[in-house]
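Quick one:
INPUT:
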């Protein structure tokens, strides 16, 4: 696979030199958009820049807190300048974290602090990538992991971050209890029997109720998984998708625009001995797709023919290891993203329309589209509340225009009754969200009780909740 992708990049560059000279070669090699301008590292008031992973969100907080324990956090919140916003790794694309008030990092509040049977008590600042080996020391694991494991546990729960698997809920579905520190400094223990309404509101709350300091989570035995990755025609992947979700512990696929191909990924439990996964090939794959876009974006039939000729014979990949080592993937190439969660019966129909729209209207798009399924849960603002959902995630290279996500893609998702991922780009607000979240008003009532002065709300969240 490496040699074929490398050949595509090299061959594309050579062809560009012949066709259009050094300028065309530069476009193939580096992309046709310059690096986006970066905000000043320090503003006029001397405040230091905070910026999210993709670069699309930024702020200059007046104060930054990094409490070492729950008591310090509670004391600090009582006097902190509003808006108070907790922040993890900055992997959300929406404006959840930006504030000109106080930014709170829980990086110093990480690790496993105890066990109740097979349930782990974990501080909310723990990064998912660090949690896997900590649990493995006890022979335990999280049931599932998202595609990226750089997030903090608190941030992942707050935005309903998820993996894939029709019998496996999003991460918050395995939370059985939590501790919430309110902006008044009160520390609240909540679970299904103790403060149950706060528990159901707080499990997915975007940091709008206070700051979750720790959670109690179900774990499972730390089993080895076999990971398989292979390419096939997009039509075949679509036809077999439902069967594969039913057959495999974890299944997802990536629809690759302008290629006629899809990448399938499965994970299944196994007792087979470990087989090294090897280095991720995503960067080379994306470079190849970007090269095709830059060289042949003007001619979709040529672009598809080249992609099929160079990629469709790639050999399948297989590896075996502990699940925490396989379920997540490195994503060094930055992007901006929109993801909606649709009724299962609408998911593939929406995907087909998204693919047609992109291939008709947006030849600049080259990132694959991620397609997953997630089990139901009962957290009030969970996109998977009361029924399983199928997710479709559309990406745009961080240097490229992403307004097409709002103009072309979001209307499709909304027409098919989608609910937005809270950490991904969308425009839904207030009554639009109330119409698709049955417990929306209940959440707002709990939020008002815990934070009557709205000290946890930045302008984005006030708009989201219909308060401005």
């Amino acid at each position: 696979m490496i040699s074929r992708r490398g050949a595509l990049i090299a061959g594309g560059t050579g062809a560009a030199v012949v066709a259009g000279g050094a300028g065309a070669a530069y476009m193939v090699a580096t992309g046709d958009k310059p690096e986006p301008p970066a905000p000043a590292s320090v503003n006029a008031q001397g405040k230091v820049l905070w910026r999210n992973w993709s670069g699309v969100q930024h702020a200059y907080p007046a104060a930054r807190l990094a409490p070492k324990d729950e008591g310090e956090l509670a004391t600090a919140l009582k006097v902190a300048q509003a808006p108070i916003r907790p922040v993890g790794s900055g992997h959300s694309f929406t404006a959840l974290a930006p504030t000109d008030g106080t930014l709170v990092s829980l990086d110093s509040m990480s690790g496993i602090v105890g066990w109740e049977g097979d349930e782990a008590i974990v501080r909310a600042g723990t990064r998912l990538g660090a949690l896997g080996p900590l649990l493995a020391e006890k022979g335990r694991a999280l049931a599932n992991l998202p595609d990226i494991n750089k997030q903090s546990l608190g941030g992942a729960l707050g935005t309903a971050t998820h993996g894939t698997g029709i019998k496996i809920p999003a991460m918050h579905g395995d939370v059985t209890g939590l501790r919430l520190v309110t902006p008044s400094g009160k520390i609240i223990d909540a679970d299904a029997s103790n403060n149950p309404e706060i528990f159901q509101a707080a499990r997915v709350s975007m940091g709008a109720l206070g700051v979750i300091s720790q959670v109690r989570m179900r774990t499972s035995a730390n089993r080895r998984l076999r990971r398989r990755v292979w390419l096939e025609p997009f039509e075949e992947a679509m036809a077999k998708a439902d069967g594969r979700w039913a057959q495999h512990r974890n299944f997802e696929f990536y629809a690759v625009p302008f290629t006629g191909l899809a990448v399938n990924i499965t994970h299944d439990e196994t007792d087979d001995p470990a087989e090294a996964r090897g280095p991720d090939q995503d960067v080379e794959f994306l470079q190849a797709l970007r090269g095709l876009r830059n060289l042949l974006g003007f001619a979709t039939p040529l672009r598809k023919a080249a992609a099929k000729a160079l990629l469709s014979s790639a050999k399948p990949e297989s590896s075996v290891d502990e699940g925490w080592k396989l379920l997540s993937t490195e994503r060094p190439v930055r992007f901006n993203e929109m993801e909606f969660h649709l009724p299962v019966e609408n998911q593939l129909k929406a995907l087909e329309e998204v693919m047609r729209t992109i291939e008709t209207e947006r030849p600049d798009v080259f990132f694959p589209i991620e397609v997953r399924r997630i089990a139901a849960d009962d957290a009030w603002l969970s996109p998977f509340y009361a029924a399983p959902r199928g997710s479709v995630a559309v990406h745009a290279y961080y240097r490229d225009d992403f307004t097409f996500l709002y103009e072309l893609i979001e209307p499709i998702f909304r027409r098919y009754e989608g609910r937005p991922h809270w950490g991904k780009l969308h425009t839904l607000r207030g009554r639009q969200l109330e119409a698709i979240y049955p417990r929306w008003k209940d959440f707002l009532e709990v939020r008002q009780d815990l934070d009557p002065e709205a000290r946890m709300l930045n302008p984005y969240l006030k708009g989201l909740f219909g308060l401005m």
